[in-house]
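Box 3.1. Reading complex inputs
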Amino acid sequence: MNVSLFIPCLVDQFFPSVGINLVKILRKVGVSVDYPREQTCCGQPAFNSGYHEEATQLARRFLEVFGDAETIVSPSGSCTSMVKVFYPEILQDVGLRKSLQAVTDRTHEFSDFLVNVMGIKDLGATFPHRVTYHDACHLFRELGVHRAPRELIRHVRGIELVEMENSDACCGFGGTFSVKFPEISTAMTQDKSAAILKTEAEYVVANDSSCLMQIGGYLSRQGFPIKPLHLADLLGENL
Amino acid sequence: MNGSREVILGRIRRALLRPGPGQGQEHGSLNGVQSSSGRVDPVQLFGQFQEQSERVGGEPRLCTDSEEALRGIQDLVVAAAYRRVAVSNHEICRRHRLAQVLSDLLPEVSLWIEEGNSDSGSSRRRNSRQLAQADLSITGAEFLIAESGTVLIASTGSSRQISLLPTAHLVLATPDQICPDLAAVFQQLGTAPEEGRLPAALTMITGPSRTADIEKVLIKGAHGPVRQLTWVIGRL
Amino acid sequence: MNRSPSQFKILASENVADQRLRNTFQSATGHALGQRAQSVQLVPEWEDLRERAHRIKEETVEHLDFYLEKLEASVIRRGGRVFWARDASEASNYVVNLCRRLQAPTVVKSKSMAAEEIGLADALESGGVEPVETDLGEFIIQVAGETPSHIIAPALHMTRQQIGKLFHEKFGIPYTDVPAELCAFARQRLRREFLSARLGISGVNFAAADTGTIVIVENEGNARLCTSLPRVHLAIMGLEKVIPRFADLPLFLKLLARSSTGQRQTSYVSMISGPRREQEWDGPEEFHLILLDNGRSDILADPRMRRSLYCIRCGACLNTCPIYQRVGGHSYGSVYSGPIGSVLTPLFQGLEVAKDLPYASSLCGSCSNICPVKIDLHHQLLWLREKLVSRRATPWQERLAMSLFAAGMKDPTLYRMGSALLRLLLKVSGRGNRPFAVPGWSPTRDFPALAETSFKQWWEDNRPGGEG
């Protein structure tokens, strides 16, 4: 199988290890990995702020860049849902319908891909730590993925997964929401962090770098030692 | 009818020229009624009614016969020291000759009997004031709903206010009136609604009047009865 | 206390800082959500019910003219009267004139969001009629001169001490903060009003087109009193409250009760078909129904926003919304708060007045997820954002930033060069890759450092020789 990586711009610029580890994981499970170099951003930041014209241009580009891909895999539930859920809402032209359908069908968030497409739950990783898992909103509600990441975590040797209260409550990021309404956004993170801290976990794991940036940014500012960790990093670093 | 009618309908029709998000269903292609059909054991039905009614603070009870019910009413009135009791003219109250029996059993209680229904506005208001003073009212019901512990009453069976103004409200019913759920009740209504044969008011009552408007603290008897009792008379 | 939706930013940041208020809303909404979850769990076909309700609402709204005419005919057949009101003043005038005809100095009123929406109470007062709110929560906030902070629990923001003090000051009763005593006082006081009022006003939860039946859902019994005792009953409903059939009620009642309070059934459900009939004991002699447009036909004209008219006002989206939970209902500066308020208020009052509301969401989607009629609420917010952008109502800096962003992202060479240039500049300036200070973000959260090497660069450098 050939997998084309879809690396969100946030990961590209700030958290490249997530992409690197994803490559490692995919190679480990025996698929060939390709990275379409022309890719940039899926357009979500523009779309979410109401700039649908700009977002539509980027969506069209995405279809061009990934049009021939056999399978598209991304380490972000949010950007995956942009493609799978929101592209069909903004790309209404009949001419694009076919290529759009093809791309949305073939795009997968990585944990969903591993567990539900490849049927792999155990990657052979070892991580003797206590962790808790945050359900990122888009992954959880737009894509309905919540079992797959937990399956992957549970099969890690030595790991202890402790569920937090309201694991599917929003972390408060929400893209530009986080800077448009910093007080509300911070209040949400504060409550999320309290739920995380209550688990006494060493790491808070999620499948979206944006949530981790928000939660991690708050936790480190408060001086709490608990670390944000992307599931791809957890798995890839410890193979 | 007024001038804005045409304006509003015109706006709506113009707006609807643009197709909506869905396909737009056929008229009448869907129906909300979906009952858990199939025969249900009456013991089980009453059991469910009882459980659900109790859950919301209602006071359900099974009386095997008329005599037990009447003695029960006597005990209830004595135990709660009710002074004024209102009896509706509902068919079930007449069948058990409540007015007569209660005046014999409870001579010290002032009984108010609802009668005549062709009264004027002023006598209705008098009745309202009477009923607002009553400690207990006794009426019948059209249906009981097991799923939610609900009784359904109609404005044709007894007045609206007799079940609303007194401090406690006792509904008398029979086992065959219990339906599994609201959908089943609606099925029993048959074509009456479409044919315009609905009473002006059908009311579903589920437990006593309540509010949680102050700090989410549950209080019974906000505006309506503080106690809601439902007694089913007969063998299951 | 006149708040405007234009003040959302200010009100929200004030309210989020008020720890007591925040605790009140978080615990109340948390409680409601818990109750809801418990009762929904017992309905295995819940998702199916939501889908059916969505389809029925879709059918209704897509043929709204048909169903409204049908409703009107049914109400008239049952001896009721129907008034079509284009806007708030038409509706209010009708009620004021009715009061004049009835020579009614006071009216008793049960809860109605439509009446709140058009400011009916104020209009009545200006018309010389005293409106008496009879729902306990509404009564409290009327006495306090406040506005509702939650669709279902209007006085949610007040403590028992505040209410005790209020009653003590306004009515001269001895101070008490025991909820049951406060409630008993209100009951007794309002009984007098019920017994003397000539007009009772109610809202409408559902109106069945085929039978002309209006349905009112409540727990206290005040709506029953409003619709049973006075000589005249007037009900006011937004156009979208119509449902096709009486037979649809079991479905909608099930969804509404469980979604709003987690009850299997509310204490009272009144199904009213016209005025008292000849052979009946009591009930109003006249029944009036106001069909209120007030902007709804405009909403209908935008197919993307049409679904917001499916709303059955259960309040579940408020309870589940992480923003509502932390800022409370008053921050929205409008009768409708929470996610549905963020959708409806800009549509009713104008986007320019309420331009922060569509952005007052992290797009977490829990509102759409909980909605019993499956309104895609967070998508609706996205469409409103798009409307604002297309009207150039967003800040110019943001518009500029987005154009630059799109230009950079459209061109992979530009993206690559920009990314490399940025890193070079940081290096040359001696700043290294220390985190930036980002306005709005950095006061409360650390911002991550730019990676020394982007993923793109890493891929270039480690171009797989023999992968697979």
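In summary: Chain B has one domain: 58-209+223-236.
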